[in-house]
Amino acid sequence: MSDQNTPDIIYTKVDEAPELASASFLPIIQSFASAAGVSVGTKDISLAGRIIATFPDYLTEEQRISDDLAALGELVKRPDANVIKLPNISASEPQLVAAVKELQAQGYALPDYPYEPSSDEEKAVRAKYDTIKGSAVNPVLREGNSDRRAAAAVKSFAQNNPHRMGEWTSASKTRVAAMGGNDFFSNEVSATLKDAATAKIVLETASGETVLKEGVSYPAGTVVDATFMSAKALDAFLESEIEKTKAEGTLFSLHMKATMMKVSDPIIFGHAVKAWLKPVFEQYGDKMKELGVNPNGGMGALLDKVKDDAEIMAAIEAVTAQRPPMYMVNSDKGITNLHVPSDVIIDASMPALIRAGGKGWGPDGKEHDTNCVIPDNSYAPVYDAAIEFFKANGKLNPATAGTVQNIGLMAQKAEEYGSHPTTFEIPEAGTVKMILADGTVLHSHAVEAGDIWRSASARKAPIEDWVNLAIDRQKATGYRAIFWLDANRAHDAELIEYVKPILEAKGVADKFEIMAPREATIASLETITKGENTIAITGNVLRDYLTDLFPILELATSAKMLSIVKLMNGGGLFETGAGGSAPKHVQQLMEENHLRWDSLGEFCALGESFKFLADQKGNEKARVLGNAVDMATQGILDHDRSPSRKVGEPDNRDSHYWFARYWAEALATQTEDTELSAHFAPIAKALTEGEAAIVGELAAEQGKAVDLGGYYHGDAAKTAAVMRPSKTLNAIIG
User: Fold this and answer.
1) Residue 578 has pLDDT above 80, yes or no
2) Mapping DSSP to helix (H, G, I), strand (E, B) and coil, where does residue 281 land?
3) Cβ–Cβ < 8 Å for 256, 341
4) What tens digit of pLDDT does each residue of 618-662 get?
5) DSSP secondary structure string, 323-361?
6) What gap in Å lies between CA 694 and CA 689, rounded to an integer?
7) How many CA atoms lie within 13 A of 450 on its CB side?
C-alpha cells in the first residue's frame, strides 16, 4: 500500500447490518468528503473477504482478491493511518463453515472445512481456516490502546430521553456462578522479562516430551502469564450448577466469549453441552462420535448429526425433560443458550440481562430469574458485584446517571485476547513448561488430560502508553480514575509494578486509585448513581466487557460509543461500536425490508476521523467537515431521527437522509470556509425540498422480503438497490 495510493480515510468493509448500512451511508460520506479534497476508500475485512483472500490457489483469477487485512495491518503502523473500523464478525466455527458453504454455492471452489484433518493437505487447510476464526481482525489492527466513551451529545440525549430499565428487587434469585478454584484465575502465574527472550512450550509426560509451541519471542519488559483450567473441576462445577439451577427454580445460562477466545472458550462450551447431556454421552458417546458429533460446535450441530437416530433423540428428550429450563436465544424458534457457541456472547448477554432486572427469556417465552454461569473467575466478579448492587439499590436511573469512560490496554495483542497461538487442550497428563532459550523454566504447571492450558502476554511499550493515555484522560476530565487491577492476581500484580512508578514519576499518584474488579465495579456504580463520572482503566478483556456493560445501562446500547484507538506510531483508528445484535437486524431486513441498525457510532467516528485528518495533514476543510458532522449527529438526536425497530416506520436509510440533510445545512451555514458553504447550500436546499419525495420513496420499499444475493457474501448490486432505493436522494448525492 504505497502513499500515493492510500486514501486519506479508510472505511472498512465488514459484515451483516453494519455493512448493509454502509451501502447507504458510504456514498454520502464519499460525496461530501470529495468537496473538501478528502478521499475515502475501502478495505475488505469481512469474513467472506478474508476467506477468499486466504485461498487464492483454489480460485479463478477473477475471484481472487487482495489480502486487505494484511495491508491494513501494515498501514496502522504508519503515522498517516486514518481508519474507520466497523464491527466485523469474529467467527465461531459454525459461522466460518456457513460462510464457506455460501461461497461454495456461489461458485468459489474453496476446500471444505476439515473438522478432523488427517492428511497433510487437510491439516494445512485447517491451519489456514483457523487463522480466520475468532478475533482475527482486532489484534492486527489495534496497534494502539483504547479510549472509549459516550460522546457528549449521546450522553445528554440518553439523560433527557431515558430508556426503559427492568425492575430489580432484593428477592431476585438471579446470580452469577463461577468456579471456586482450579480455573484460569486461580492457576495463573506471571513474570516480567528483564531481557528479550525466546521460549518454547513443552508437555513432559511419562512417555516423553512433546513440543507444543516453539519460537515464541518477547521483547524486554514483557509480562508473560501462564495458567490452566482443570477439565475435571470444570465438569464438576457445571454438573453442580445444573442441579442447583433446578433446585432454585431459575433458568440455566452459560455466558462465554467463544468468538474472541476462539480456542479456549469453544472447548469450555463443549464441556457444558456434554454436562447438559451427560447420560446421553455416557450411553451413546462412541456412536455420536461416529456420526461426527463435536460438542464444541453446540447443540444445534449435535442435533443435526443425530436427528435420524430415534434412540439417541429419545434419550436427549428424556434428559432434557429432567433438566432445568434453559435461557433462550429465540424461544419462538426453540434456539437455546447451548445451540451455537457464538449466540450468547458474555459482553452483550450479561449487560442485557442486568438491564432487564436480572431477567432472561425462558423456553415458555416469558422472563425469569437466571443462574448466570461464567466458569472462569477472572472477570465473573464484575457481573456478580453489579447484580448484587442492583438487588440492594434498585435499577440505575439513566436520566441522572453519570458515565463510565474507559482507557483499555489492548495494543500488540495484549493479554488473553492474544493467547490463541499459545492455548492448548492437553492430550495426556504431565507437566507443561515454558522454557526460555537459556534453559530457564519460566512457568510450570502439572496438568491432566483435557485440561486447557494457555499463555498470554503484554508488552512494555503498550503498557507504558496505556498508563500515559490514562494520565492524559484524567487530566482532561478531572474525573475519578480507577485502575481495575487485582493485587492478588498474578498478572495484575506485575502490571501494578509498571503503573505505580509511572504515576509517581508524573506526580499524579494521588489522582488515581487501584482496585480489584469487584471493588472497582461497586465504586463505579456508586459514582454514577450519584450522577458523577469515572474512568475505568483496564486490561483488554475488561475493556471489552465494560464498554458494553456501562453503555447498555447508561445509553441502552453500546453501538453509540465513541471509540478512539490512538495508534502508537501516530495514526488513528476510529471504531464504531458493537455488532452483537447485527444478525437479527439482517434477518428483519431480508424478511421485511426494514433495517433497524443505528449508525450513530459511525457518525461519531466519522467526525473524529475528519478532525484527526485536519491535524494530521493540515486540511482545514476536513476540520470544517468534522465539526459539521458533530452538528448533524446532534440534529439526529435532537429531532429523534434514529431508526425505529418496527417495519413501516423510519429505518436506517431514513436516518442517513436526515444525517445528510443536517450535515449539508451545517456546512452551508458555517462561516469558516466560504467555498464549502457555497458548495453545500444548493445541496441542503435540494435535500430540504426533496423531503416528501425521499421519505415516500424510502417508505414505499418496506414490508416485503428482499434478496441480497447472500448473507456473508452478498451481491453488491442487489445490496445497493435495497439500501439506496430513493431515486431523489441518489440524484442529489450522486
Assistant:
1) no
2) helix
3) yes
4) 999 999 999 999 999 999 988 999 999 999 999 999 999 999 999
5) SPPB-EEETTTTEETTS-TTTSBHHHHHHHHHHTTSEEE
6) 10
7) 9
